[in-house]
Specification:
This protein has 95 residues and is α+β, with helices and mostly antiparallel strands. A hairpin with a 2-residue loop joins β1 and β2.
Length: 95
């Protein structure tokens, strides 16, 4: 799958936003800036939900960045030939 430059830039920007939001959620909750409204009555799950969601956002951002690198590598290692039925992609390793 070939992505345009604009699509790659949007994915990269979205991944960076997810990474930063994840880090801010984790750090903000752990130092006490971001908390649930009433931590004395909240359960364990409510107290740990923000850092857990921050970690999930961070992992998702890292996954999207890794996916972009992998996609670029795949496109460089293929030879594309036009046929009557469309594009035919052949791996350089297979040759």
């Amino acid at each position: 799958m070939k992505l345009s430059v604009a699509d790659r830039l949007l994915l990269f920007a979205g991944a960076l936003v997810a990474l930063l939001a994840g880090v801010l959620l984790m750090i903000g909750n752990l130092i006490g800036v971001l908390t649930v409204p009433r931590p004395d009555t909240a359960g364990v799950l409510a107290r740990w939900s923000l850092p857990i969601f921050g970690l999930l956002l961070f992992l998702f951002g890292g996954y999207v960045l890794a996916l972009l690198r992998k996609l670029r590598r795949r496109q460089d290692s293929l030879i594309v030939a036009q046929t009557d039925n469309g594009e035919m992609r052949i791996s350089v390793r297979a040759l």
